[in-house]
Design a protein that fits this description.
It is a single chain. This protein has 97 residues and is of the alpha+beta class. It has 3 helices and 4 strands; from the N terminus they run H-E-E-H-E-E-H. The protein has one domain: Transcriptional coactivator/pterin dehydratase (Gyrase A, domain 2, 2-Layer Sandwich), CATH 3.30.1360.20. A 4-stranded antiparallel sheet has the order 1-2-4-3, covered by helices on one side. The protein is globular and about 35 Å long.
């Protein structure tokens, strides 16, 4: 099981990611991506899926407003945020817009 990161480590790692934030009420990092349209948003989710599967680390994903994709990352087995969450966040950020 990966080690849960401290608040200080989380804040430090968030500085290296654009648009990601710590949820103040739930131990997770999250980002909302605004895609071109509904089909682009769905395709974006389809591109996240294999990245998550490769890492055996599956985010919560919410599609709303037809083109907004909110990605929420937490390591459930560790009960908080781990390096795995930041690794997957960086991989998702590399998906072309």
């Amino acid at each position: 099981m990966p080690d849960r990161l401290s608040s200080t480590e989380i804040e430090e790692k968030l500085r290296s990611l654009t648009g990601w934030a710590l949820n103040p009420t739930v131990p997770q990092i999250e980002r909302t991506y605004v895609r071109k349209n509904f089909l682009d948003a769905v395709q974006f989710i389809r591109e996240i899926a294999p990245l998550a599967e490769e890492r055996d680390h599956h985010p919560d994903i919410l599609l709303s407003g037809y083109k907004n994709v909110k990605v929420m990352l937490s390591t459930h087995s560790a009960g908080g945020i781990t390096q795995n969450d930041f690794d997957l966040a960086a991989a998702i950020d590399n998906i072309p817009a």
